[in-house]
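U., I forgot to send this yesterday:
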Amino acid sequence: MKIAVLLSGGVDSSVAMHLLLQAGHREVTAFYLKVWLEDELSRLGHCPWEEDLRFARAVCEQTGVPLRVLSVQSEYFERVVAYTIAELRAGRTPSPDLFCNQQIKFGVFFDRVREPFDKVASGHYAQVRENNNVFRLFRSPDPVKDQTYFLSRLSQSQLARALFPIGHLRKTEVRKLAEQFDLPNKARPDSQGICFLGKIPYNDFIRHYLGEKPGDIIEVGTGRVLGQHKGYWFHTIGQRSGLGLSGGPWYVVGKDVVRNRILVSHKEQRAPQARAAFRAVEPHWIHRPPTDEEEGFTCKLRHGPTLIPCRVKQNADGSWAVTLAKPDPGVAPGQFCVLYRGDECLGSGRIEW
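Result:
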């Protein structure tokens, strides 16, 4: 079996590759996907891609696995960065990591490599199980590191070729294996944030593409102008910090894109602004859609360990009505609602109010 390993230079993908070798796989080739947009964003700061690549090379030299560098910068900009900018301009909250996996790591990658690979392996915390040629996606036993939220847009054909060698492990176990394998990057901390940003602050990235547009911060209910913001695209629903308002805590509960206004509510009035129901549009189901008769669903509204009990029902227009067991103050248009039954990830849809 020929296996391509997506090697980031981090601990997770390095341990994943070692586990494949330990299992007896010999036709293994490592790939470093270069997505950093140095030409566009070089003046804003430094991206550690050279450091990532140095660690990836060190791990491959240790194991004797060949490493190839594949530039997917233009595709990444077209399919992930442009989407992020468009969503911010529309006043929504983007989820670029979902499209990075669907469009790039398990999409463009297969289009760009010349030789065929039976499987593509990565360091994701998730599990794929197959039964009668149907592939299902399951959560990692590590609830904090579980990455099924980011993989919820993968298709059957993509899951059929996906390998997640550390998906059955917890992060603490992966760290112990890194020590056992004496990896060159065994002490390297986990990366945070969106991969094309590197160490660039998110607001600097937004400012580069969308600029600044001062507007009013309005208190919901009273209509009082509490302060000024530099552009609604710098803020998201549920945000607390960075508003510059006294007498808080204040939370962003809405946006008026047409008037360029941010709507906020004080902590005491925040609960009424929380949402228990919304539409999920552009649904994607990994295997099949649920039926109205089925029960026992939970969902994630963002990456993390929190699973919220919910009910779902298909609307006539193909969207899904989602009703949460408990209102959530951070439900934001543009985010993705990822649906689960037990540990199985069923798919996802984009949130609309």
